[in-house]
């Protein structure tokens, strides 16, 4: 088969990512090859969670970024793409208006997806890393604005729920206590139904925490909750500047990484989970997997790279 390239854009509350993957030959053990991964920390949630909307300055930066991503997709000869916006854009009073303007001026169509679809995109097609298909798991995806929690029973995704508890939202002190209480109640119910459960962690912060833990090779993708507690306490003992310097963290990671750890530890506490499986995948990977499946079922429904539109000098 001829080479096919897919692209995924994740417009999150903390960062905006572009992932481009190509399909490998049928003889290859790996389905995809990663061609490009970019992350730009726009932090849209910073103003959305405090002021309720995306300011004009951030909207302009996002437009410029979408135009840049579009040019990169052209350079890499992307055949199909999907761009998804999550919690910050969902919450912003002017979210739809911003998206419409960016689509008109950049040619990039953007879908504002709900938390349930976000969770399903992240989970779908990644069951192969589950050690025991008959075991029970909760898939926890911690983002800047929200946390998605999905129940996996006997290898099947049974339910997904979204909670407005995210790292940037916590940083700004904008998590409503009632949302915390709802999460705790739901987790307690899960523990009653599934007394032995393992967490599958998703998101940039848990990936970084896993690497910082420096576990033996035998641990593979498994992070013991006890180790995460120790690491989180150590990180909290340092100032943001020390944290960034000692652990080689970018500023936009250093100020939220302990918030992410707190969320994962809250889930572990209420479910009594002892381990977190960290497969280092995210929303962009799920989007590309869904594009691949869609392409093989109904290729005419793919979203091709759009022609040049709007003011390229904006």
UniProtKB/TrEMBL annotation:
<dbReference type="InterPro" id="IPR050273">
    <property type="entry name" value="GppA/Ppx_hydrolase"/>
</dbReference>
<dbReference type="GO" id="GO:0016462">
    <property type="term" value="F:pyrophosphatase activity"/>
</dbReference>
<dbReference type="Pfam" id="PF02541">
    <property type="entry name" value="Ppx-GppA"/>
</dbReference>
<feature type="domain" description="Ppx/GppA phosphatase N-terminal">
    <location>
        <begin position="40"/>
        <end position="295"/>
    </location>
</feature>
<dbReference type="InterPro" id="IPR043129">
    <property type="entry name" value="ATPase_NBD"/>
</dbReference>
<dbReference type="InterPro" id="IPR003695">
    <property type="entry name" value="Ppx_GppA_N"/>
</dbReference>
<protein>
    <submittedName>
        <fullName>Ppx/GppA family phosphatase</fullName>
    </submittedName>
</protein>
